[in-house]
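User: I'm curious whether this sequence folds into something compact or stays loose and floppy. Could you predict its structure so I can see for myself?
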Amino acid sequence: RYPRARVLILRTVLPELKRSLIPRSQEKFDHSVATYRSADKEWRFNNGSIIEFGYMNTEDDVYQYKSAEYDIVFIDEATEVTEFQFRYLMSRIRITAWRKNMGAWPHMILCTNPGGPGHSWVKQRYITPEPAGYKIIPYTDKVMIKDTEVEVTLERVFIPSRLKDNEKLLVNQPTYVLQLKQTGSAQLVKA
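Assistant: Here's the prediction. I'll summarize afterward.
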């Protein structure tokens, strides 16, 4: 939709991408408008847009994205990354004026399950302020733009998803509920 858009899709380790998101993208994407380049782990679209798959196995892996610019950063299983990695990647999100004029907007998308090393910061940032979800949580501050102090706002929102929301899974595999109950503590399963 937006020519020359740059999107980064991340997991913590490359094998997770190879087992999940990459094969799913190969099934879903229209091969007449995009080509997957296995060596680069990226989709290149006819309009110049690129969807890149990446990983952050260690804290320092974020530096492989130094100087990179993305319209959208998507972190799958966000509770597996540290708050430092998340904050660093936020600094990689920026767009050019002409894409903004086309209606594009820079943003980050996080998907996750409870648990993992980043559970606490994700809960504190997204769930604790609005436990029921769906309400925009603003962060407003003042910045200097061309010698003028301007108030700007970043927004975030928690969109909850419960097992009951995935009716197809429950119909196709009703035992999945029992499988989840066996994965950990009652508190984690409830989350």
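Summary: Strands lie at 6-11, 34-37, 42-45, 50-55, 72-76, 107-111, 137-145, 148-156. The first helix runs from residue 14 to 19.
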